[in-house]
C-alpha cells in the first residue's frame, strides 16, 4: 500500500471510538509523518521483505487508516503491525521527529486489551501467563527454573540432549528458549545494599538490577557496580526494586506494568541519589518512558503520573552516566580485537551511541573494529525472537554475517536480549566468540585482569 493513497477497501465503518484501537492516541502524532520514506532504509523488517506495509511509514498509514475507520484490523494488517520490532531505528532516521514508539506501543496495547476482552489476546495464552508474566519478571523464580539447566551443563548432559535432538519434542517457544540458553556462569551472591566509592566520592547512585539480567547475568551487575565504585560512586542497591514492566506493557498489560513502575517508585530514594544506573538497554528505554506510559494508561491518578515522570528523569544508562561524570581511565591492558553492536533501545530509544565507544577506547590494548549495519536490529527485540521466529532468525543471520566479517574475537553489546540472540547465533555457527557487556571489559581493565577467551 502506497502511503497517501486510498486503501483497496474504501468502506467507511462507524464503530464507537472506544472500540477502535489507537483512538486515544493524539491524532496530530500520526500527521507528523510526511511520508518522505527516509525511515525505510533504517527499518530492519523493510530491508528483509521490501514490503511497504512492513516499513514505518506504511505501518503509520495502516494505524491511521484504522483510527479513521477506513480499514478494519484484518489478519493481514495485524500481521504487518506485529512484524514491527519496535526497535525505533526509524526515529533516528526521521527528519520530522516522528515519535514512532508513541504510536506503535499504545496502539498495540489497545489491540491486546481488546483481544483479551474476547479471551483471544496474548494475556490469555499459556506462554504469556506462565512464562512471560509469572516467570521472567522474577529473578528468584528464574534461578530456580535454571537450576536443572545448570546441573545438565555442569555434567555435559545438555550436549547429549541436544545431540539426540530431544528439544524438538518441546513446544516451539520452549524449544527456542532452549536454543537461546547460554553457558551459564556460576551465580553471584546478591550485591550488598551499599557499596562504598573508591577514592574521593564523586556521586551517589542506585543500581537497577533487572530480572532476566540479574538471574542469568548477575556477573554483569557485579562488574557494573565495581566500575561505578572505581569511578568514585557510592552504589545503592535497593532490595525492593522490581521488573521494569516492559514484558507486560508490550503485550498489552499496561496496568500490570504500572504496578511495577509504582513498586520501583517506592524502592528508590530520589531525593538522595544523583541517578539510577541501568545496564540493560531494553529496561532503560522502558524506565525512561514511565512518564509517557503513565499518561497513556487509563486510571493512573495525576499525582502518580507526575511522580513517575520525576522517576523517569533519574534513569541513566551506565555508559551515558560515566561519560557525563568523566571516566577515570583504566590502566589494565586488554589485548583483544572487538566489535561493538548498538542495541536498538540504547542507540535509537535512548540516543546513546558514542558514549560506550568512548569508554571502550580508554582501555589499553583494546582494538575496536567497526561493525557494518551496527545499528540494525539483531532480531532479539525483547520476546520478539520467541513470537516472530522467522524474522528474528533472518535478522540474526544478517547480524552474524556482519560480525564474522569483522574478524573480531569479541562482540560487545549493552543489552541482555542482544547478548542472548547473538551468542545463540554464534554457537549455532560453531563460532565461539565471547559476547561481553562494556562494563565487563572496563571492569577487567580496572582490576588489571585478562579475559579468558
UniProtKB/TrEMBL annotation:
It catalyses: glycolate + A = glyoxylate + AH2; (R)-lactate + A = pyruvate + AH2. Keywords: 4Fe-4S, Electron transport, Iron, Iron-sulfur, Metal-binding, Repeat, Transport. Signal peptide: none annotated. Binds 2 [4Fe-4S] clusters. PROSITE patterns: 4FE4S_FER_1 (PS00198), 4FE4S_FER_2 (PS51379). GO terms for molecular function: 4 iron, 4 sulfur cluster binding; glycolate dehydrogenase activity; metal ion binding. This is Glycolate oxidase iron-sulfur subunit. It comes from Gimesia fumaroli.
Amino acid at each position: 500500500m502506497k502511503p497517501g493513497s486510498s486503501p483497496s477497501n474504501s468502506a467507511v465503518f462507524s464503530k464507537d471510538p472506544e472500540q477502535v484501537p489507537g483512538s486515544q492516541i493524539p491524532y496530530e502524532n500520526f500527521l507528523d509523518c510526511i511520508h518522505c520514506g527516509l525511515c525505510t532504509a533504517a527499518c530492519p523488517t523493510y530491508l528483509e521483505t521490501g514490503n511497504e506495509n512492513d516499513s514505518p511509514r506504511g505501518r503509520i498509514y495502516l494505524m491511521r487508516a484504522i483510527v479513521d475507520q477506513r480499514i478494519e484490523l484484518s489478519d493481514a494488517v495485524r500481521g504487518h503491525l506485529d512484524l514491527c520490532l519496535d526497535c525505533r531505528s526509524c526515529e533516528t532516521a526521521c527528519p520530522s521527529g516522528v515519535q514512532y514508539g508513541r504510536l506503535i506501543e499504545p496502539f498495540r496495547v489497545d489491540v491486546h486489551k481488546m483481544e483479551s476482552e474476547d479471551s483471544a489476546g496474548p494475556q490469555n495464552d499459556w506462554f504469556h501467563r506462565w512464562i512471560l508474566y509469572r516467570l521472567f519478571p522474577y529473578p528468584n523464580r528464574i534461578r530456580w527454573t535454571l537450576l536443572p539447566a545448570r546441573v545438565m551443563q555442569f555434567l555435559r548432559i545438555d550436549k547429549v540432549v541436544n545431540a539426540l535432538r530431544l528439544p524438538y519434542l518441546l513446544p516451539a517457544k520452549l524449544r527456542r528458549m532452549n536454543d537461546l540458553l547460554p553457558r551459564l556462569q556460576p551465580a553471584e551472591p546478591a550485591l550488598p545494599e551499599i557499596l562504598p566509592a573508591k577514592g574521593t566520592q564523586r556521586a551517589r547512585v542506585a543500581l537497577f538490577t533487572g530480572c532476566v539480567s540479574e538471574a542469568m547475568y548477575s556477573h554483569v551487575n557485579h562488574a557494573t557496580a565495581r566500575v561505578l565504585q572505581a569511578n568514585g560512586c557510592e552504589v545503592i542497591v535497593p532490595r525492593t526494586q522490581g521488573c521494569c514492566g516492559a514484558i507486560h506493557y508490550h503485550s498489552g498489560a499496561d496496568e500490570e506494568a504500572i504496578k511495577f513502575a509504582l513498586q520501583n517508585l517506592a524502592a528508590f530514594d530520589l531525593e538522595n541519589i544523583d541517578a539510577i544506573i541501568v545496564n540493560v538497554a531494553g529496561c532503560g528505554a522502558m524506565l525512561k518512558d514511565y512518564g509517557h506510559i503513565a499518561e497513556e494508561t487509563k486510571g493512573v491518578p495525576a499525582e502518580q503520573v507526575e511522580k513517575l515522570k520525576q522517576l523517569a528523569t533519574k534513569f541513566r544508562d551506565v555508559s551515558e552516566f560515566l561519560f557525563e561524570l568523566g571516566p577515570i581511565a583504566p590502566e589494565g591492558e586488554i589485548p583483544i580485537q572487538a566489535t561493538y553492536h548498538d542495541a536498538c533501545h540504547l542507540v535509537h530509544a535512548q540516543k546513546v551511541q558514542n558514549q560506550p565507544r568512548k569508554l571502550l577506547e580508554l582501555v589499553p590494548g583494546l582494538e575496536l573494529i567497526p561493525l557494518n549495519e551496527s545499528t540494525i536490529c539483531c532480531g532479539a527485540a525483547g520476546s520478539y525472537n520467541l513470537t516472530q521466529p522467522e524474522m528474528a532468525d533472518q535478522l540474526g543471520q544478517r547480524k552474524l554475517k556482519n560480525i564474522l566479517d569483522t574478524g573480531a574475537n569479541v562482540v560487545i553489546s549493552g543489552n541482555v536480549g542482544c547478548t542472548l540472540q547473538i551468542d545463540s547465533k554464534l554457537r549455532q555457527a560453531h563460532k565461539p566468540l565471547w559476547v561481553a557487556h562494556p562494563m565487563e571489559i572496563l571492569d577487567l581493565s580496572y582490576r588489571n585482569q585478562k579475559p579468558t577467551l
